[in-house]
Write a structure and sequence with these properties.
It is a single chain. 70% of the residues lie in helices and 0% in strands. It contains six helices and no strands. The protein has helices spanning 23-43, 46-57, 63-80, 87-105, 110-124, 126-136. Helix 1 packs across helix 4 (87-105) and helix 3 (63-80) packs across helix 4. 17% of the residues are buried. Residues 1-5 and 7-19 have low confidence and may be disordered.
Length: 137
């Protein structure tokens, strides 16, 4: 409804060595992450999102530069928001929440935001995601 949602529906398959897993596992993980994301969303200042929008919209910046900036913002938020969960899980949820807010703010950035977020997650959180899936299966 005029908003990007992560509702647990799977449109593709995990790659990079992750074995196919039961769809219910993905739905359970998505539901847990969405609940945490709703809590984090309230804590994220609009200024942070606007700064990210500026970086994503700057075509002079490479994907690598935008990914590094996003990484630094996520790490900053992990330090500033009181968390009661593992740092990797917090980083994953924050990256997804930030991406959602950027895409809802400027829909024309969807491709760049999506690709950058996937790149960030592959670089920073791949092992954590693989472990989370294997533990839930």
């Amino acid at each position: 409804d005029d908003e990007l949602q992560t509702d647990g529906n799977r449109s593709g398959h995990f790659q990079n060595g992750l074995a196919p897993t039961d769809e219910e596992v993905f739905r359970n993980i998505a539901a847990q992450l969405a609940e945490i994301g709703d809590q984090f969303d309230k804590e994220i200042n609009a200024r942070v999102v606007n700064d990210l929008v500026q970086h994503f919209g700057d075509q002079n910046l490479s994907t690598e530069e935008v990914t590094l900036y996003m990484s630094s913002v996520v790490e900053e938020l992990v330090q500033s928001i009181p968390l009661d969960l593992a740092q990797e899980k917090a980083m994953l949820v924050l990256a997804m929440v930030l991406s959602k807010r950027i895409m809802n703010t400027v829909p024309s950035l969807v491709c760049r935001v999506f690709n950058t977020t996937v790149n960030f997650m592959n670089q920073q959180l791949h092992d954590y995601i693989a472990d989370m899936v294997s533990q839930t299966a």
